[in-house]
Design a protein that fits this description.
- This protein is about 40% helix and about 15% strand.
- It is an alpha/beta fold.
- The chain has 2 domains: about 130 residues, Aspartate/ornithine carbamoyltransferase (Rossmann fold, 3-Layer(aba) Sandwich); about 160 residues, Rossmann fold (3-Layer(aba) Sandwich).
- The strands form 2 sheets. The protein has a 5-stranded parallel sheet. It has a 4-stranded parallel sheet with strand order 2-1-3-4, with helices on both faces.
- About 50% of the residues are buried.
- The protein binds phosphoric acid mono(formamide)ester (CP) and norvaline (NVA).
């Protein structure tokens, strides 16, 4: 049912190293697997394969979607955390990877330091998947695009997405995937919370045609967009900055007022977990524009597409 149209993808770290064709292929496989699941149940594309899953930070969606994805594809997952492995303390990232090379068929890791994922990739003979780092969250972006496709169709070129909030890991991956797929990306953030390290310039170097903008006025930013996206103002690891951040982000809440400044057909996305009443109100999150829970379910399908391509023959 699923044919291979691309050269084997090796790792999935930032999206910048993934071609538009590879991204489209993963999304296509994901959509086919979702349909197959609805009509026939599980598909055995990863029978006998094992994914190692390492977590330094908490997770609900990423943990469950990857583990369930492996199960539904006929494989299995082994989940472990910082406490057991002591990565970087009990042994080096390189040694961890060398050991895993001989035991499993893929490694996904959620870490603080993005450089750890790069180090894993350097020593890996199996695919490495970024399950979120301080730098970016590419797996989330796959599900986000899938969710936009559910509303607007497969070809999203010429569409637009406005991320209202912090120039964080999730925003970075959205900027990258939008650039790759011809979707205009806008970050609406308070001054000082733009994407660090002039990330948009990096994206532009990879995708010279990309439409990337930054606004400091969220109302002006959302006037003509297909999707409004939000995330917490305080990412994991930034807890000490919480007070200041909540002050600085006042005025960047996605609420009915902000939605009134957008087009009636604009949809609202959130990667979750949501701090209801902070970055998004109940009225918006539970209202007609929200696609938030379908988006969270698409994590499962997107992960299946990604794993089938990286670890299987899809
Ligand atoms: N959106 C997301 O990655 O959720 P978790 O942190 O719960 O995995
Ligand atoms: N930006 C958030 C995303 C959580 C899925 C964080 O890193 O905590």
């Amino acid at each position: 049912m699923i044919s291979c149209v691309i050269e084997q993808m090796n790792h999935f770290l930032t999206l910048l190293e993934t071609s538009p064709e590879e991204i489209r292929h993963v999304l296509e496989v994901a959509a086919q697997l979702r349909q197959h699941r609805d009509e026939h149940g599980d598909a055995d594309l990863l029978r006998g394969k094992t994914l190692a899953m390492y977590f330094e930070k908490p997770s609900l969606r990423t943990r469950v979607s990857f583990e369930q994805a492996m199960y539904e594809l006929g494989g299995r997952a082994i989940v472990f955390g910082k406490q057991e492995v002591g990565l970087g303390v009990r042994e080096t990232v390189a040694d961890f990877t060398r050991v895993m090379n001989g035991m499993v068929d893929g490694i996904m890791a959620r870490v603080y330091e993005h450089a750890w994922l790069e180090e894993m990739a350097e020593h890996a003979q199996v695919p490495i998947v970024n399950a979120l780092s301080d730098h970016c969250h590419p797996c989330q972006a796959l599900a986000d695009i899938m969710t936009m496709q559910d509303d607007f169709g497969e070809d999203l070129s010429g569409r637009s997405l406005v991320f209202v909030g912090d120039g964080n890991n999730v925003a970075r991956s959205l900027a990258a995937i939008c650039a790759k797929l011809g979707i205009a990306f806008t970050l609406a953030c308070p001054a000082g919370y733009e994407l660090a390290g002039d990330y948009l310039a990096t994206v532009r170097r990879v995708c010279p045609e990309a439409e990337l903008r930054v606004f400091n006025d969220p109302r002006a930013a959302v006037e003509q967009t297909d999707a409004i996206y939000c995330d917490t103002f305080v990412s994991m690891g930034q807890e000490e900055e919480k007070k200041k951040r909540l002050r600085d982000f006042a005025g960047f809440q996605v609420n009915e007022d902000l939605l009134a400044a957008a087009q009636p057909e604009t949809i609202v996305l959130h990667c979750l977990p949501a701090y209801r009443g902070v970055e998004i109100t109940n009225a918006v999150m539970d209202g007609p524009a929200s696609r938030v829970f379908g988006q969270s379910h698409n994590r499962l399908h997107a992960q299946k597409g990604l794993l089938a391509v990286l670890m299987g023959q899809a």
